[in-house]
Write a structure and sequence with these properties.
By secondary structure, the protein is mainly alpha-helical. It has a domain of 57 residues. It is 87% helix and 0% strand. It is elongated and about 65 Å long. The chain starts with a helix and ends with a helix.
Amino acid sequence: MTIFDEREKASEKKFALEQDRVFLARAHATKVLGEWAAKRLGLPSEEAASYIQSVRTLYVSSYNPSVIFDKILRDLEAEGVKVRAEELQQTWEKARADAMTTTSDAG
């Protein structure tokens, strides 16, 4: 194996680790956002756990934060809970940033 092959493998490994870190941070942020919404909806413990799981499943199937933002905003609106989209976005960004910091500290 040449030095170039070794560098290529190292680069690929670094890229894969970074992608894993990003995925885990987004998964954590999705969970936090689901918890945040369940709390605002006033869901009891079992219903909250189910709601959080549904948010996480939706995110994994779409891998698009705007899809879960739309769902949560619709759910909150249906229950008469007033929340700004910006507040939802800020909650997501903070949870994602916290998770990225935690995973970089651990790695």
